[in-house]
Amino acid sequence: MDSIDPARIIATTTFTVEGYRIAEYLGIVRGVIVRAPTISQSIFGGLKTVIGGQIQEYASMCELTRQDATVQMMQHARELGANGVVGIGYDASEIGQSATEVLCYGTAVRLEPVPRETGA
């Protein structure tokens, strides 16, 4: 297995990465985004709560918020010199009546490829 591309960070919810060993634990990394719906999202979302069904406006906002929190966490990992983040998780909570905080967290690590065994 070749060395890891330094521009790439391997990210996983597991605590191991097949084909690699954790050479060094660099610490906890996180990304935190606080977001409130726009006026149009609130209006359309409010109407859909009355008539029922999936509220796509809110789902889109939540997905974008998770993506932004993940990017922020990865940047934090790069700052520590990591080429991997293991044990990734997400948490969300309401702040006030209209804002939501999304936290993405994990452990920044330095991964090394496990040498392949050659048969005789």
Describe this structure in words.
The model has no long low-confidence stretch (mean pLDDT 83). The protein has a four-stranded mixed beta sheet. It is elongated. The protein has a single domain, classed as Translation Initiation Factor IF3. By secondary structure, the chain is α+β, with helices and mostly antiparallel strands. The longest helix has 24 residues. The chain contains two helices and four strands.
Structural class: alpha+beta
Q: Please state the second-level CATH architecture.
A: 2-Layer Sandwich
Give average pLDDT, whole number: 83
The name of the CATH topology is: Translation Initiation Factor IF3
Number of helices: 2
Sketch the major β-sheet.
4 strands, mixed
In spatial order, strands of the major sheet run: 1-3-4-2
Comma- or semicolon-separated keywords:
120 residues, alpha+beta, Translation Initiation Factor IF3
How would you concisely characterize the structure shown here?
This protein is an alpha+beta fold and 120 residues long.
Question: Topology of this structure?
Answer:
Layout: E1 10-11, E2 20-35, H1 39-51, H2 56-79, E3 84-95, E4 99-113
Parallel strand pairs: 1-3
Antiparallel strand pairs: 2-4, 3-4
